[in-house]
Amino acid sequence: MDMYTVAEVSKKLRVRKSFVYELIYTKRLRALKLSERRIRIPSSALEDFIRNFSEEEKGKL
After folding, report:
1. Locate the Helix-turn-helix domain: which residues (predicted)?
2. What is the dihedral of CA 2, 41, 32, 6, to 10 degrees?
3. What is the pLDDT of residues 1-58, one digit of tens each?
4. Structural domain harbouring 35
5. Which of 8, 9, 24, 40 could form a disulfide with 3 if both were Cys (CB 3.0 to 4.6 A apart)?
């Protein structure tokens, strides 16, 4: 299983790191908190987020 940092996820999604943190804290994006300052996002969690976001957008059309 691949794991990504917040910075890596922000680059993949082309958003700011603060937005990725917001997604994590609002539980829209699953993440593992390894320590106070270390957060990792499993590749499966990122794929789930993208899939769910795409489905939400389709529902709005």
Report:
1. 3-52
2. 130
3. 799 999 999 999 999 999 999 999 999 999 999 999 999 999 999 999 999 887 776 6
4. 3-60
5. 40
